[in-house]
Design brief:
Strand order of the largest sheet: 1-2
Mean pLDDT: 80
Helix content: 55-70%
Low-confidence stretches: 442-480
Number of domains: 1
Distance between the termini: 45 Å
Number of helices: 20
Shape: globular
Number of strands: 2
Length: about 475
């Protein structure tokens, strides 16, 4: 990058740091927008490593610094159950100890591995501190719904255009010289004998898995919106978004979508049990199958393909990779982290293709237990949080996020999805929201309410627990 470009980036990052001093929550909204468009920027710059660190320097670190200085992390800790704190601390300590493993990779690779493992985990506390009232949740949901429409429409446009103008041509038009990398070398999968083809679609992201992971988060947000908003306009928009992201997921070309999108729909409905939401869920799945029919994927062939895929994931990706990659003591932090390729010419010592296998490869048997323990503790406390949420709007929030957590925990048997943006940030953020929401008596923000910067009293940065409201008591239980 040129000197002028670097100076512009530095000025932008400085503005973000200053902005966090005044209203750090605005930086969270900006972070979600950046995560949705960073892929398009990354593939168009000469050195993509610069783009990879913008998220950390310009968005995440300023928020961490603000909350740490003002005592926000300490107050947010009260919303996090002891089991989650202990499990997270054990995993972080193990990752830190494995940085000194003599069998490990070069020093820079260890630093990157450490960052990938633990840097996003404090977003759990950020999520817990973020929620002051239904206004905060409502604004965030509206932003996620708008972003879901943007990335879904772009993705579906790429998918449809690939049939008219050719898959490679469309990818090159969107991504230029980075088209091969963005589409994973123009990967396609043939299904059945009718010429059906699954095509990798990256939308606004740098590769398709990022796109699909964002669609999972958008699915949960759209489901929440249908039960959270009081105005019918936003209820209908949320339900329409749920249908749209279901279709976009099936057209993303990520084969895991045919398993985990229906699984997420089912999980959210099981936890929420709202009959009215079944129509939108069924419509999303049904239209997704119809769109695949447009690509020549007949339902019978698709069913056979999904069944074969399920058996393969269970046999090879799940237990096979864990058994083959897990060592007793591990090979050190960063030994199996793909992102280390950005800082060292040496390839990773191994490339485990699921999250638990990576834990075993880098951290040993204890690492597998630590990761599984953290996710299990999160799910357990999520179930308890959902049981404590009595207002309909609250149950929509906790039920959808809990469903997302369960699906991500299962999906991690298939891939290292918690290593990649945007899910590594958004997953822990929404876990914090899920754990915090039942403990709040939410209220509409009143004029003069502290804006959450360093220029207000520290104690006012994160609102006092128990701020009065009728919302948690079931009156006015939704936000318009």
């Amino acid at each position: 990058m040129t000197t002028s470009s670097l100076l512009m980036l530095a000025a932008g990052a400085g503005a973000c740091w200053l902005g966090s001093l005044v209203r750090w929550r605005l930086l969270i909204y900006a972070l979600f927008v950046w995560l949705a468009i960073a892929g398009l920027v990354q593939v168009r710059v000469a050195d993509p490593r610069v783009i990879l660190v913008i998220k950390d320097i310009a968005f995440v670190l300023p928020v961490y610094a603000t909350l740490l200085w003002a005592g926000g992390f300490r107050r947010a800790m009260s919303a996090v159950p002891l089991s989650v704190k202990l499990a997270g601390a054990v995993l972080a300590l193990l990752v830190l100890l494995q940085c000194g493993n003599p069998l490990g990779p070069p020093v820079l690779a260890r630093v990157v591995g450490l960052r990938v493992w633990v840097f996003s985990m404090p977003m759990l506390l950020v999520g817990a501190a973020f929620v002051r009232g239904e206004s905060d949740l409502g604004r965030l949901l509206k932003l996620l719904i708008v972003l879901a429409w943007i990335i879904s429409i772009v993705g579906l446009a790429q998918w449809l255009a690939s049939f008219w103008f050719g898959y490679r041509n469309v990818m090159r038009w969107f991504y230029g010289d980075a088209a091969a990398a963005a589409s994973q070398e123009f990967t396609t999968f043939e299904v059945g004998d009718a010429g059906g083809e699954i095509r990798r679609i990256p939308s606004t992201f740098s590769f398709p898995t990022q796109y699909y992971n964002q669609l999972l988060v958008a699915t949960a947000a759209a489901y929440v919106g249908g039960g959270f908003f009081s105005r019918r306009t936003w209820q209908r928009r949320s339900q329409a978004t749920l249908v749209l992201v279901g279709v976009a997921s099936f057209a993303s070309g990520v084969r895991a979508a045919y398993l985990f999108t229906p699984a997420l729909f089912v999980a959210m409905w099981i936890f929420d049990r709202r009959q009215g939401r079944l129509v939108a869920l069924a419509a999303g799945l049904g239209l997704g199958v119809l769109f695949l029919g447009f690509a020549g994927l007949k339902p019978r062939f698709l069913y056979d393909y999904i069944l074969e895929l399920t058996v393969h994931y269970a046999r090879v990706n799940t237990f096979g990779y864990i058994a083959s990659y897990t060592g007793v003591f591990g090979n050190g932090t960063g030994a199996g982290t793909i992102a280390t390729r950005h800082v060292t010419e040496e390839p990773p010592l191994g490339v485990p293709e699921n999250y638990y296998a990576k834990a075993g490869f880098e951290l040993g048997v204890v690492g597998v237990l630590a990761v599984a323990g953290l996710l299990l503790a999160t799910i357990t406390e999520g179930v308890r949080a959902h049981a404590r949420a009595h207002a309909p709007g609250l149950r929509a929030v906790t039920g959808a996020i809990l469903g997302l957590v369960v699906v991500v925990a299962i999906y991690s048997f298939k891939g290292n999805i918690l290593d990649f943006d945007p899910l590594n940030v958004e997953f822990w953020f929404f876990v914090g929201v899920m754990l915090r929401v039942p403990k709040l008596r939410l209220h509409r923000a009143q004029p003069g309410w502290p804006r959450g910067g360093l220029w207000v009293r520290r104690a006012a940065l994160v609102e006092r627990a128990g701020a009065g409201s009728s919302w948690a008591a079931g009156k006015g239980a939704r936000f318009g």
